[in-house]
Amino acid sequence: MSDVQRMEFTFPVGYHGFHKSQVFNFQLNRWHSFGYARLEDMQEAGRRISSFADWKTEMVRQADKAVSEGRLVNATFYYRAAEFYTFEEDPDKVQLYDRFAWLFNRVFRDEGIERVDVPYEGAFLPAMRVRPVSGPARGTILMHGGFDSFIEEFYSWMWYFATRGYEVIGFEGPGQGAARRKHGLALDYRWEKPVNAVLNHFGLQEVTLL
Q1: Which of 85, 98, 127, 129 is deepest in the core (most CB within 10 A)?
Q2: What is the pTM of this model?
Q3: Beta 167-171 vs 140-143: how paired, if at all?
């Protein structure tokens, strides 16, 4: 049982035409639909972006503006958005990741998120555990993202399920987030391996895997 008072998220309905290129439009819709971005910010960003360099500049500008206005949830994920299309050889990529991770932990520090490092092949898989808001858990949902996503991106989803009585555990597998950046684990198509490691670490036998 948890008595943590968690923040609220809303999930906007619809897919917007923020940008004529789907390379940029999809990502702008992504942050908006997850409940992390204001509509007017994504509309403005769409008008100002015409290249990957513009993307980084604009999303950092949006993030810095959000910080100055005290909109820290927006700022957190605008830094993540900026990092997403920053190329690997750009030193700003690591700095943007670190800024995103630090701000996420600051913004959500009172949300009852339990951070766990799951041992894996001489390193660790970062995991986040969110318990149901009240009462015994109706079940456990195990979540992971796709390709090179970060598990923090899915916190609004984890919140949604926790407020409806589920225990939610999210993790980063090899090639994702801190598993790659901090623990050096490269992407591995054999995804059953990290899933098995997480299930065993938490002693889970029956879960819904998302």
Answers
A1: 127
A2: 0.93
A3: parallel
